Amino acid sequence: xxxxxxxxxxxxxxxxxxxxxxxxxxxxxxxxxxxxxxxxxxxxxxxxxxxxxxxxxxxxxxxxxxxxxxxxxxxxxxxxxxx
Length: 83
Prior knowledge:
- This protein is 49% helix and 17% strand.
- By secondary structure, it is an alpha+beta fold.
- The protein has 2 domains: 4-37, no CATH class; 38-68.
- Strand 2 and strand 3 (31-36) form a beta hairpin.
């Protein structure tokens, strides 16, 4: 499947584009004017953006990447969880 369609091509191939699992560009006058992003990919992007905006999550990720994160058994922290 092509990665970029003109507006006219996109209209003609809309069912195929919607079934696509990859991001597809929509061009107007040979310049990309927008994108079709599959739902699963869009939700993953939103989740990533939310994590990147969370200072606590970013601190935890940095500690894990540096190998400085302390892990505990789930049974040990279950009483602390607010479930």
